[in-house]
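Q: How would the structure tokens look for this protein?
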Amino acid sequence: MKLTLVLEHPSLKPLLFLLHPANRHEARIFQEVLDELKGRKIIRRGDVVIMDKGFYAYRNYLIGIKYGIVPLIFPRSNFDLSRLDGLLSYPLSILGSKDLGKERRRFRALKAKLINLLLRWQEFKVVRAVIEDILNSQNHSD
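A: Here is the predicted structure in token form.
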């Protein structure tokens, strides 16, 4: 089994945990994790969700923006920011909006925040290290 654990930062309060079969790659369960977070009203529009490289896939950045969050997924070495920038276009769902201008501004703000955070994603390795330390200390105390 594989455990997906979602913690609130900086309190490290557990918000959600999900169990998956061990043979499912993290990149393939990204949308399921977001569905659970949204369904339980844990994430809100504009929230930054930090995930490790296991969730890395260009489509997951797009899915996160579609959910109205900033998906700071640690990129892999072959990551191309200009490719992601080209892929991030207005979702068709905003075309039916009553306030198209507002939806376009929200999208642009999410995209800009994501690009900005991806340019300095290594600063967030400290957050990941703290979580790893806590998880490792729990494993050693059993």
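The longest strand covers residues 14-20.

Residues 100-119 form the longest helix (20 residues).

Upvote if useful.
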